[in-house]
Amino acid sequence: MKSRSFKLIAAILVTILAAVPAFGAETVKIGAILAVTGPASFLGGPEARTLEMLVEQTNADGGINGKQVEMIIKDSGASPEKAISFAKQLIEEEQVVAVIGPSTSGETMKIKKIFEQAGTPLVSCAAAEVIVNPVARYVFKTPQKDSYAATKIFQTMKSMGISKIAVLAGNTGFGKAGKAQLLKIAPTMGIEVVEAEVYDKKSKDLSAVIAKIKANPDVQAVVNWSIVPAQAIVAKNMRQAGWDVPLFQSHGFGNIKYVEAAGAAAEGIIFPAGRLLVADQLPEGHPQKALLTKYIADYEGKYKEAASTFGGHGYDAFIILKAAIEKAGTDRAKIRDEIEKIKNLPGTGGIFSFSAEDHNGLDIDSFEMITVKNGKFVPYQGM
Q1: Of the candidates 41, 32, 27, 40, which has an alpha carbon nearest to the alpha carbon of residue 12?
Q2: Chain-centre distance of CA 243, in angstroms?
Q3: Distance between CA atoms of residues 244 and 239, nearest Å
Q4: Does residue 87 sit in helix, strand or coil?
Q5: Helix H or strand E segment including 195
Q6: What's the pLDDT at 8?
Q7: Residue 145 in 3-state DSSP?
Q8: Spatial CB neighbours of 203, under 8 Å, sequence gap ≥ 6
Q9: How far is Cα of residue 312 from the mean position of the Cα atoms in its chain?
Q10: Are 107 and 115 in contact (CB under 8 A)?
Q11: 263 backbone φψ class: left, alpha, beta (φ>0; ψ -120 to 50)
């Protein structure tokens, strides 16, 4: 397994380097810790491919400040233990100027302290709000905040006349953090959580959990906060039980593959996400439209697969670091300082504006409420 992982890392690095001119003595060396393989490869795979593509494009255009970019991608397989080891390797041995990733919230929380102590910027591609709240000086993240996702869901529920709900969550870092935000925010918005269940992320059948919450006649809607495969399993089990209350998913539902996995049961699912999923439906002149349409065309043309919000998190991490390095050079502390100064930078997830108090840089308007209609993502227009 160790040999296979090494070969994979080497293959990724060779692919990136082969597409650019020979490196001189000085390069801009950036690390990445991503779940390229394993249970979270649906996150890390698109992130790694996006970074590979962006490095090729950047180096073909002359690099950053005239220096070629060297991207070292480590495949953690979503293992916190591997993430810890790779973090130390990238900082101490490879001496990278910054690191992108990890792909998952659990990994990110395990390595935050390492980057703080080393004074090295980390731009996570994971979603949990606890990554940046409270703020850690050297830690940033690109996905929108859990609290904003929960708020957008509840706003939509209120417009539908829904006031009593069930909350489901997988037993992952992402699931636990999301559940905490839902339970915290619901009372402030007039929503009562009458059922709340946490299930094993490896479950292949959640019909017993669905039966339990369905038995409560007060439940008007369900919110499921999880990663795959549970997103599709919950939808299927609800439909199999003949339960047609609205199903809301977290902002982790932003990949058309999940719709395909759920089949007909995905119809009508409502969830918050960045505008990448509906880029073709944005008005001309929207500040994200040109960037989104180019990223989608470039990614899908190169890799022959649908672009997703997950690859977008990697895209945003790269352009944030690129913007900071262009001003700071390769000094780690100065890169950190320049990230905090970034204002109104269009990305796939929204328009980024960082500060000393905000290391996510996105506001609630970065979310669009989206639904599934005829197997496709479309903006939610109300019932």
Answers
A1: 32
A2: 30
A3: 7
A4: helix
A5: strand 192-199
A6: 47
A7: coil
A8: 230, 233
A9: 8
A10: no
A11: left
Q: Are the C-beta atoms of residues 123 and 99 closer than 8 Å to each other?
A: yes
Give the rounded percent of residues in the chain with a pLDDT score beyond 90.
88
Residue 98 token pair: 């910054």
Structure tokens at 135: 């703020």
**CATH assignment, 2-144+290-352:** 3.40.50.2300
> How far apart (Å, rounded) are the C-alpha atoms in residues 271 and 252?
9
Task: Tell me where in the chain the CATH 3.40.50.2300 domain(s) lie.
Answer: 2-144+290-352, 146-273+367-379
Residue 377's DSSP bridge partners are: 372
Strand partners, 198: 169
Q: Does CATH number 3.40.30.10 belong to domain 146-273+367-379?
A: no
Q: Work out whether strand 164-170 and strand 221-225 pair parallel, antiparallel, or are unpaired.
A: parallel
**Pair of tokens at residue 317:** 């991490």
Which residues have a Cβ under 8 Å from the Cβ of 230 and sit 6 or more positions away?
170, 199, 201, 203, 206, 224
Dihedral sign computed on CA atoms, order 93, 95, 101, 104: positive
pLDDT tens-place string over residues 211-239: 999 999 999 999 999 988 999 999 999 99
**Listed residue (33, 38, 43) closest to 1, CA to CA:** 38
